[in-house]
Amino acid sequence: MPELPEVETMCRGLRPIVGCRIEKVIRPKISVKPIRFQPEAERFCRELTGQRVDRIERRGKRVIVVLENGYVVFQPKMTGLVSLTDPPDPDHIRMKWLLGAVEKESEHQVSSGSIEVFFWDRRGLGTLSFWTAEQLEQHLGEGKLGPDALSISVDQMCERFRKTQRAVKVALLDQKLLAGVGNLYASEILHRIEVDPRTPCHRLKVVQWERLHQAMRDILEEAIRYEGSTLSDGTYRNALNQSGGYQNHHQVYDREGEVCRKCGKASIERIVQAQRATFFCPTCQRRAGKRG
DNA sequence: CATATGTCCTGAGAGC
DNA sequence: TGCTCTCAGGACATAT
Question: Cβ(A228)–Cβ(A9) under 8 Å?
Answer without folding.
Answer: yes
